[in-house]
Amino acid sequence: MAETDSGLARRLATETGRLLVRVRPGNGDRTAQIFLAAQLAEHRPDDAVLSEEAPDDLRRLTADRVWIIDPLDGSREYAEPGRTDWAVHVALWERGELVAGAVALPAHRPKPRVPYRRPRIVVSRTRPPAFARQVAEAIGGVLVPMGSAGAKAMAVVRGEADAYLHAGGMYEWDSAAPVHVARAAGLHASRADGRPLHYNQPDPWLPDLLICRPELAGVLT
Fold first, then answer.
1. 114 in a domain, yes or no?
2. How far apart are CA 131 and CA 20, in angstroms?
3. Domain tally for the chain?
4. Do 66 and 141 belong together in one domain?
5. Which of 49, 53, 63, 71 is most buried, judging by how many CB atoms fall within 10 Å of its CB?
6. Is residue 154 part of a domain?
7. Matching Gene3D superfamilies, A to Z (predicted)?
8. Of 114, 146, 122, 125, nearest in space to 220 by CA
C-alpha cells in the first residue's frame, strides 16, 4: 500500500529528528535539508517544496501541492548543549489548505502534567511580543519563554501550556506543520487578531500567530 501524505510527513519528521540527534552539534540545518529534499524528491517528485534552507522556487505558486518544511526549527537551541526545545517541521499544503503535517521533537522528554490554575502563554525566549505581558495580565496568566515555534505549539498540544502567542514576524515554514498538528488536536490557530492563516503565498512572511485552547480564542484575539 502506498504511503499516505500524513504517514510520509510523520516518517520524515521522525527520521530527520533522529538524524539531527546523531550529528548534533554539527551543521544540522544543512544535514536535515539534504535528507528531506532527497526524500521528497524520491517519494513525491511531482510536488513543489518551500523550505527555510533552500532558495525559493516560485513555481510553487502555480502548484497544487507544496511541502512546507523547516528542517531544523530552533537552530539556536539545537546548538546549545542540553536544550530540548528544537524541532523538525514537515507540512503539506494542497489547493489552499494544510492537509498533512508533523512536528518532531527529537530531544524532548515527556513531563508529568502538573495542574496549573493560571493560563500559561508560551512566548519566544529571545523575542517575546511586547504586548504579551499585557495580555497575560488581562487574563491572569503567566508567560513561559521557550525556543522553537514547534516546541511552543506542541506544549499547547500536550497540555503543558494553554496558548502560544507570537508577534514580530515569522515565516510559513515556522508555523505550517505546528498549525496543522494543533488543529488536528482540536486547538484554535489563527493570526493574533483572529484572522485566518494563509500559506503558499508569494511572500512567505507571517506577521503573527496564535495557537490556543478553543475557549481562550475569544479572549486572546
1. no
2. 34
3. 2
4. no
5. 71
6. yes
7. 3.40.190.80, Fructose-1,6-Bisphosphatase, subunit A, domain 1
8. 122
Domain that holds residue 100: 5-104
| C-alpha–C-alpha distance, residues 23 and 43, integer Å | 24
pTM equals 0.96
CATH of residue 127's domain is 3.40.190.80
Q: Which three cell numbers stand for residue 8?
A: 510520509
Q: Which helix (H) or strand (E) holds 3?
A: none
Q: Which residues are annotated as a binding site for Mg(2+)?
A: 52, 70, 72-73, 174
Q: What is the CATH number of the domain that holds 85?
A: 3.30.540.10
Residue 111 lies inside a defined structural domain of this protein: no
Sequence ranges of the binding site? 52, 70, 72-73, 174
